[in-house]
Design goal:
The chain has 16 helices and 27 strands. The chain is an alpha/beta fold. It folds into three domains: 233 residues, ANL, N-terminal domain (Rossmann fold, 3-Layer(aba) Sandwich), CATH 3.40.50; 235 residues, Rossmann fold (3-Layer(aba) Sandwich); 94 residues, ANL, C-terminal domain (GMP Synthetase, Chain A, domain 3), CATH 3.30.300. Helix 3 crosses helix 4.
């Protein structure tokens, strides 16, 4: 589904708003997650529920901010400028008013193409507060990739950074539906800037806009689902509010209670569902201070932690590896950090062991699971009940089951099958793609994740493999079909298959198996360069190009990627 895949590594010390500790033995004694109903055998449920208000996502966050309006909400890690939570709400309202004057109204789609910065969050909440829809676009995309998402989402406005303006303008030549391009900073094109719009007096803000939380979309991120090209994931206001309420339950929550303000490092991209909800959204709701940096750069990363005394560190496995192996990172540097969150890909027991050997074992790790289609979280390890390698147990108001791939029968402990999810965080569907929606969410409302999993006797879930074909590069997804389509356009390519190979730094990297026309003398490097010029960096063929005489396929013509991958792994 998406790059949230396996939220791992939460280091826990206390529960939010509760000075209560639950021991692992108490957990096992008093809590059972599987349904006791014999008609629902092996369906996993949390032993508690949370109340979910039926209100717009922006109202949900803005009302929470009232109690800590004077606390710092965002710090720009480059300029060190900051705004409070109260100022954040005021700026979002002003921008909402300014966008209304530009005739951006309820239901319009606004694309945000930007690295992390406070203005990203201001823009996101301004758009959603007036009933418009955000679509967040990877800021490393090429013009063609940006144009594809603009076209599919029907975006009518774009908010971007001046450095990305040439790409956005080129994309808008390919898709002519964009009426406004707004830059976060000066430009030479006489285009409106966020700085100008944020001077709006707020009087045009549509306070009476009617938002139906369960039907109206707040954000349209793109995911490839189980197969195929990226599709718009319709997440409603209720989806987002639900997931925030679910992960804030004290049985899972890691934010410390008391007057001390949490400090988060916003390095994971906000355009990605993990950065968007677990980092940006949660930070605003709990009154934390978020220090944003536009990208991971070792000196900047270390310097920001040192300067701002980060207390919660959101990471992906390559960053955890950096923390372990870099001489720049000492136990003293992470002394202020009480929580380490690692998502987008599994954080295996070996890496946890190395981390503890360097920084001490006072940090307990928690795994979890999610995807864009679930807003994103569905599983987390409860406080003080971590089991290495497990993605944890279902969160409140959520059901999960593991089903046989052939019969659909619900399976018990130790048996591998497809993981399915049911809960209020599950997406409304794929945008303008009813066929893909029906293939992913069945008639009973179960989201079929495309992941092969198993559970143990204590209801911990383990992700075994991916039924789907997505490749995960540093937590970002790459659809093989997209690269294959691109490669087939090369005049020398007759047939092609793309798979993902394990990589220590990136998690996975794409490799292409290519059948060339007999008369061709093109080289492997030339094929790789052809792709590199057309796609974002994470989609490049860093796993190499292999020429072959034939692509293995089933009788129905489906590429047998598992055969290719098995052969690649065997040959080393």
């Amino acid at each position: 589904m998406d790059g949230f895949r396996t939220l791992a590594g939460v280091v826990l010390r206390q529960l939010v708003h509760h000075n209560v500790h639950r021991s692992s033995s108490a957990f096992r004694k008093h809590v059972r997650f599987m349904s006791s109903d014999p008609n629902e055998k092996w369906i996993m449920k949390a032993p508690f529920t949370v109340d979910i208000p039926t209100i717009p996502f922006t109202k949900y966050v803005f009302e929470a901010q009232e109690s800590f309006a004077d606390k710092t909400a965002f710090v720009n890690g480059i300029t060190h400028e900051s705004i409070t939570h109260g100022e954040f709400r005021a700026l979002a309202t002003r921008l909402g008013s300014a966008l209304t004057r530009l005739d951006v109204t309820k239901g319009d789609v606004v694309a945000i193409v930007s690295p992390n910065c406070p203005e990203f969050a201001i823009s996101f909440f301004a758009v959603s507060s007036i009933g418009a829809v955000n679509t967040t676009i990877n800021c490393t995309y090429t013009a063609d990739e940006v144009a594809q998402q603009l076209r599919n989402s029907g975006a009518s406005a774009v908010i971007t950074h001046p450095l990305l303006l040439p790409i956005v303008k080129e994309a808008c030549k390919k898709y002519d539906g964009v009426r406004h391009i707004i830059t976060n900073g000066p430009n030479n094109e006489d285009l409106p800037t966020l700085q100008e719009l944020l001077k709006d007096d707020g009087t045009a803000f549509p306070h009476n806009v009617k938002i139906d939380p369960k039907e109206d979309i707040v954000v349209l991120p793109y995911s490839s689902g189980t197969t195929g090209l990226p599709k718009g994931v319709m997440l409603t206001h209720h989806n987002m509010v639900s997931n925030m309420q679910q992960i804030l339950h004290p049985f899972y929550n890691v934010i410390r209670p008391g007057s001390t303000q949490e400090v988060l490092l916003g390095v994971l991209p906000f355009f990605h569902i993990y950065g968007m909800v677990v980092c940006m959204g949660l930070s605003l709701y709990v009154g934390a201070k978020m220090v944003t940096v536009p990208t991971f750069e070792p000196n900047l990363y270390v310097g920001t932690i040192k300067r701002y005394k980060t207390t919660i560190l959101h990471t992906v496995p390559p960053i955890v590896s950096f923390l372990i192996h870099s001489d720049m990172v000492t136990p003293e540097l992470l002394k202020s950090v009480h929580t380490l969150v690692c998502g987008a890909a599994p954080l295996g027991p070996a890496l946890v062991k190395e981390f503890n050997e360097k920084f001490g074992d006072g940090m307990n790790f928690q795994e979890g699971y999610g995807m864009t289609e679930a807003s994103p979280v569905t599983h987390m390890t409860p406080v003080e009940a971590y089991k290495p390698g497990s993605t944890g147990v279902v969160i409140p108001n959520t059901m999960a089951k593991i089903v046989d791939l052939s019969t659909g029968e619900t399976l018990g402990p130790g048996v591998e099958g497809e993981l399915c999810i049911h809960g209020p965080q599950v997406m409304k569907g794929y945008y303008r793609n009813e066929k893909a929606t029906q293939e992913t969410i069945d008639k009973d409302g179960w989201l079929h994740t495309g992941d092969i999993a198993k559970m143990d006797e204590n209801e911990n879930v383990y992700i075994v493999d991916r039924l789907k074909e997505l490749i995960k590069v540093k937590g970002l997804q790459v659809a093989p079909a997209e690269l294959e389509d691109l490669l087939r356009r090369h005049p020398a390519v007759v047939d092609v298959a793309v798979i993902g190979l394990p990589d220590e730094r990136a998690g996975e990297v794409p490799r292409a198996y290519v059948v060339l026309s007999p008369e061709s003398d093109v080289t492997q490097d030339e094929i790789a360069d052809y792709v590199a010029k057309e796609v974002a960096p994470h989609k490049r063929l860093l796993g190499g190009v292999c020429f072959t005489d034939k692509i293995p396929k089933s009788a129905t013509g489906k590429i047998l990627r598992r055969e290719l991958k098995a052969a690649a792994l065997k040959s080393g």
